[in-house]
Design goal:
589 residues, mainly alpha, two-stranded antiparallel ribbon, 20 helices, globular
Length: 589
Amino acid sequence: MRSGAKEPDKQHSRTHQSFLQGALILTAGIMAVKVIGAMFKIPLTWIITEDGLGYFNTAYHFYSPIHSLATAGFPIAISRMVSECVAQKRYGDARRVHRVSIPIFITAGLCGTLIMLAGAPFYVQAIGNPEALPSMLALSPAILFGCLMAIYRGYYEGLRNMVPTAVSEILEAVCKLVIGLTGALGVVWLGMREYHEKGTVFGEPMASESYAKSAVLPYASAMAIVGVTIGSLVGFLYLFWKSKHAGYGITAWELLQSPPTVSRSQTVRRLTRTAIPIGLGALAVNIAGLVDTTFLQTRIGQLMEENGALLLSQYQGMIPEINQIENTVPNFLYGCYSQALTLFMVVPSVTQAFGISALPSVTSAFAKKDQKALRSSVSSVLRITCLFCIPAGLGLSILAYPIAQMVFGARASMTITARVLSILGIASIFAALSTPINSMLQAVGRVDLPVKLFLIGLTMKVTLNYFLSGVPEINIQGAAIGTLCCYLFLTVVGLMLLLRVTGIKIPLFSIAGKPVIGAVLCCAGAYVCQSVLSQWLPIGIAAGAALVIAVIIYIFALWLLCAFTKTDFLMLPKGKKMIKALEKIHFFG
């Protein structure tokens, strides 16, 4: 520490968020994003239907691996290194980590954008879905903007300040909603107006209204994705403005008292060594979506050629005739799968906040060799994750059909979506648990383990997807089965390795057993309620009422089981006051 410096008034203290406070901020942000996302995705599905959603998600799942390779490793590496530097009071090194990441991210973003622009035409031809090309081209600049955002998100998360990340995500979602939805609706309106006035769509003559709508959808999907791309730009501009006007979260006094910084080259080497394994692990996760996109459409295409009658016999009255005539059944079924995937992703996307927020506290406890704090942090992360994901996943599985119909509308294809969702609902539990487990493995320095596990899990998923999706009686449900097996493996083996690396023991019954009991009770109540109410009410209203009753049953069950601990509440704002109030009603048993 440098001597002779006098501490300025009110500049020596810097507050940071606990794990649960950070998780609550991110969770609140994610929930807001999900609500906005639902306001975008549900009307978008009504506008562009299953066909347009197939184009939309084909672009997204090609984009995700490139985006993750360019961005995923470095934000986590930055967060981990900044958190470690702050824990050791090396504030200058924390700032240097941020500075050296800027040219790396810009280069990665530009390369990723160029790869997607160049690779998109070849990919859509390879999977037999050329109509997805406009959507892929519209999404490619989002890779660069995502990289620019990641520079700031990782840094602020390392400082345990989750507000910038949450705000930027909300701004992204709002832009996607306003621009994307308006653009998609505008393209459909213009195209169909041209057809009704001239019998053409964008200058091409159309034989019927069904053909006209089919011709409009690729461009409507692309306009929806333009909203996504502009949203990522707006999110970056907010973070850039925040850093310039609100500072970088480290005071001048802390920088003055910091020891001499390490060299730039040393910081780059360490950042790269940490980021590359994490990035490869994230790449493996996102390749899973690309596997679904590729294998489902190509294998369903083969089924249609070899045994189309048997495949179509399982979906009588569920697939529009225009898709059978134009040979776009693979894209339509992929669109149905994408609808189920949209609901599936809600659960792990929320618990992703737990993993991001846990990383600094777990890293700090591990760096200080504080086993008690480490055990407490790990247990809290897993407990909070289980309390949310187990009832949510079981509910998606048991109420798959009414939930799908409530969200996407009463269409014949909802039966197809529900069949997939009944499997993906269970898979969402393990997908949600695996995310914070892998974050905590990275936090304790074993960034290699998630990569190895993901490669094994991905191999398992690819193998199952390929063989099962080629069976006419299984088809798109094969991808859901592969996803379930993959995430089950990642969760079980990842948890075993985390406990071995950290040398801690956790109370598994308190963490997972109690939520399972509560989830079974609430889902049973929801199923009975939905079955009874659907006899008198529309299925969507009955499902909504059943979900409300399920939440009430679940909270009551958790209270009876004493599923919460005082430690959990201590990490909340005004946690001590909450504990005193809850003790009066014997909440903790």
